[in-house]
Amino acid sequence: MLRFINKRQLGQLTLLDLVVVILIGSAVETAMVNANTSLIAGLICAATLLITNRIISLLFNRSKRWRHIFGSGPILLVHNGCFIEDHLKRAGLTHQDVMQALRQRECGMLEHVRFAVMEVDGAINVVLRKSENDEI
Residues of CATH 3.30.240.20 domain(s) within the chain? Predict the structure, then answer.
């Protein structure tokens, strides 16, 4: 049912998707363990959660206002070789976290970074300077 309702891969699950998966597990487990609750009731509960999740996802995809209120966009972490401290705090990252992401992309020096952005999915993307004088 989860695959049918939501086409995302496991690595692309949002926080809401994760909460729904946990709630589905709890709802179905309760229906399976308790003798006074039928399995059909658990499956109906799971289907209701999945459909509600799908409706909320559609609202997020179609409304900039909903995305702005409940979601977050990309966060600029490094600009022209300098950390943006307020953005690091907002993202809950340290200098070491960002430097680790830079090293994973074969960049050992912060000065070589044009910008680094934490995307909505949590990945940190890095764009290197093309030359020493690149200050855009």
Answer: 75-128
Distance (Å, rounded) from C-alpha 77 to C-alpha 87?
A: 6
CB-CB contact of 56 with 6 (8 Å): no
The neighbouring-strand residues paired with 82 are: 79
| Domain 75-128 sits in CATH 3.40.50.1110 | no
Cα–Cα distance list, 49 to 34, 41, 43, 57 (Å): 20, 12, 10, 12
pLDDT digits (tens, 9 = 90+) for 92-114: 899 999 999 889 888 888 899 99
- Residues 6-61: pLDDT tens digits? 555 545 666 777 788 888 888 778 777 776 667 778 788 888 888 888 888 788 77
